[in-house]
Amino acid sequence: MTGLRVRHRKTVALDGVDLDLGTGVHGLLGPNGAGKTSLIRVLATVAQPSGGRVEILGRDTAEQRGRTEVRRRLGYLPQEFGHYPGFTVREFVAYVAWLKEVPAARVPDAVADVVARVGLADRIDARIRTLSGGMVRRVGIAQALVNEPGVLLLDEPTAGLDPEQRVEFRELLRELGTSATVLVSTHLVEDVAAACTEVTLLDAGRIAYRGTPRSLSELGEVSDGPGDHPIERGYTAALRAHRAPGARESVR
Ligand SMILES: Nc1ncnc2c1ncn2[C@@H]1O[C@H](COP(=O)(O)OP(=O)(O)OP(=O)(O)O)[C@@H](O)[C@H]1O
């Protein structure tokens, strides 16, 4: 994407973001209101940018045909994930597979496979309303995977997962990142350290830092910023550097 701008009435959520994401797991970090959800929603083609250009899987999303094609090959877990509580897990994931135009003959196996990957095989015929919050989140991850997406957009996927599930989810992310472009927004820097190949830090609608989890940790090792882990200190150090007077031009 180049020069991406997003406005919500008077609020500028993204202020000219240039980002090129290849295969791998990209962590998207930033304080509340930094613009992470706005960025993911534009990439998911559910929101229109007010400026700039977005190309996904070689398609320009400003064009109707491009958007239709991209939607078929995209997986998206929104921050507030809408589902039908009366559906079973199997019915709901199959419904999303149908929306994504997965060939009908492949749907049963594709559904069983993704539900097993998120650790819900034993609840596949349970109604979603009977599941815990963390389990519903995992249904959300399963529906995002059902069409074997080339681009996977996950907005705070680990919110509500218990520690064991988070560890398993990171493993799944690493696996997915070998063949797809995965963008994960999170507030949990340890998820980024464990599962991401690259990290982008947004602050007030601009890119404050880009690098690898290792480079962010290294920044933390030489900084005296707050944080209990080097990558947390790197996060605060990168934000402070970005916010320092005169720093704006040196970023990017
Ligand atoms: N629908 C909306 N109407 C008005 N302002 C909005 C709307 N959605 C987002 N904003 C504003 O846009 C900015 C970016 O919000 P966004 O949700 O993209 O941030 P975020 O990084 O995802 O935050 P969080 O970590 O809290 O989820 C914020 O200032 C927010 O208040």
UniProtKB/TrEMBL annotation:
Keywords: ATP-binding, Nucleotide-binding, Transport
GO molecular function annotations of the record: ATP binding; ATP hydrolysis activity
Keyword Transport annotated: yes
Pfam families associated with the record: ABC_tran
Residue ranges occupied by any ABC transporter domain in the UniProt entry: 4-229
Stated family: Belongs to the ABC transporter superfamily.
Protein's name in the database: ABC transporter ATP-binding protein
